[in-house]
Structure formats: C-alpha cells, structure tokens
Amino acid sequence: MSNDKDTGGIKLKINGQTHLLDVSPDMPLLWVLRDKLGLTGTKYGCGRAICGACTVHVDGLQRRSCATPVSAVLKSEIITIEGLTGPVATAVKAAWVSLNVPQCGYCQSGQIMSTVALLAQNRSPGDDQIETALAGNLCRCATYYRIRAAVKHAAATLGTAHDLS
After folding, report:
1. Are residues 136 and 108 both part of a single domain?
2. I need a labelling partner for 57 at 20 to 30 A (CA). Which of 9, 63, 107, 113 fits?
C-alpha cells in the first residue's frame, strides 16, 4: 500500500492480504507474484505486455503485470487468478469448464481475468465488445471460438442483474 521506510520494504495488498516485501520499486509485479509469493497462476508470456498471459486486476481493472513496476501499484488492490472470487468469477470459471475451453491452458488465466473484468462492467457484451476486451490476450492454440463462446455462456448465466458483488 505504501513504501514503508521504517522496515525498508514495500507493502502490497494482493488477494486481500497485505505483504511486506523486500524488493526494488522497479521490479515488475509479475516477478513479485510468481517468485516472491508463489502465485504462479499469473503466467509469463512475452514480457512486453502484448500477450495477456500475465493479466491481473488492479483496483478492478485489467493490468499486464509483466510491465507494471510494483511502485505503480503501492496503494492498489491487486487480484490474481488465485484470488478471483464472486458471482462473475464463478460464472466465468464454470463456463470455461462447461465448454472445455483450454487446450494447452497457458493463456487461460489471462483470458479469464480479462473476461471477468469485461463482465463486471457489462453483463451483456456484444461480439465487438468481447473482441475488444480480449484483443490483448493471445492464444497459441487458437481456441478463440471456445473462449468467446464461454464469455457468452457466462454472460447468459449471469443475466442482466445489476448486483456486481
């Protein structure tokens, strides 16, 4: 949450827990998650914020953790795939399983994080909105058809209720 000069560490709130870490402020968030905290669901893909495998939520919005220094998220709530909860997350995860979306699965945490961010804002997205929201998530196995079908399935499951909690 802030740089703690008394202890020489950096405080980050990740998945509802505060962590005091002895890391450089310039260290990418991805490496803090994977190497320091063991949260390996967030994947390293390209290292340049292009592929989306490293997508996390920062204050409810999707962010590429490979290109985000920890100094940029000191006062933020960070959610990884391991900490993703709530009705939208539940519907998305269920749709992924129901439609057998992953092939190799490497990109799926980023795809799911982006889908949850989309459906938290828009419970009934059209094809263009889905395309825009997922455009930064690459899938080497080309399961885009199943991914988009799962987005629509999750949206239909959620209906048009306004309670986003």
Report:
1. yes
2. 9
